[in-house]
Amino acid sequence: MIDNIIQYFESIDPILAALYASLFTWIITAAGASLVFFFKGMNRALLDGMLGFTGGVMVAASFWSLLAPGIEMSPGEGFVKVIPATVGFALGALFLYSLDKVLPHLHINFKESEKEGVKTPWHRTTLLVLAITLHNIPEGLAVGVLFGGVAAGIPEATIGGAVALAIGIGIQNFPEGLAVSMPLRRQGVSKFKSFWYGQMSAIVEPIAAVIGALAVTFFTPILPYALAFAAGAMIFVVVEEVIPETQRDKFTDIATLGFIGGFIVMMTLDVALG
What we know:
Layout: H1 2-11, H2 14-33, H3 44-72, H4 79-102, H5 124-151, H6 159-186, H7 191-200, H8 204-218, H9 223-246, H10 252-273
Helix pairs in contact: 2-5, 2-6, 2-7, 2-8, 3-4, 3-6, 3-9, 3-10, 4-9, 5-6, 5-8, 5-9, 6-7, 6-10
């Protein structure tokens, strides 16, 4: 089945493939959010474990799917070869740092008094959605940049690797959708609205994916920088948001094991399919 999927993506325009792949990750987010129709609440240990899994997938994807191929395709030797990755990684982290400081948001499991970004009268609902939206921007960029590399004819960028990344991002998007919808439901928001806000948190992924793919297609030399940029943004999200969100209760060991499991799954997907 996976081979058929890869063959299909190889037969269509890579930009369109980036859109389809990111729509898949959006759908998986919606599937996670839809659990709000069937359950009234969620076990905190399970939520922390799933968020840990999300962090593991993002860290593994940052290296195996983004940094490693970006370094491999960079020209030069020694320190010169790693310059694009270093610059791109730093810029990606700074980009998310800037968004984190400006965009009002509230981390999962945090109190409303701990909201971040500029001061705003926005409700907790909006702030929770924006927090997960921050997660999803670098994920969409990562998928788009890889497919853009394929479109540009870069040997190190493969459809198999891009598909592996999209599958990994999709898997870890499931708990992200759930992590928005369930807390909203507990606050008294209706089931449909909780689902709606949960799935809307991933709407930025197709947009970011297409932008990333187009940018790399038109400016091929930036590909190593773009891959590292997406990696830096993802690592910032993991360290600044995902990990702290799993450390607010007594289930830190479960979150850690979830992280390790997510890393193994993403590493396996990338090596097997890439």
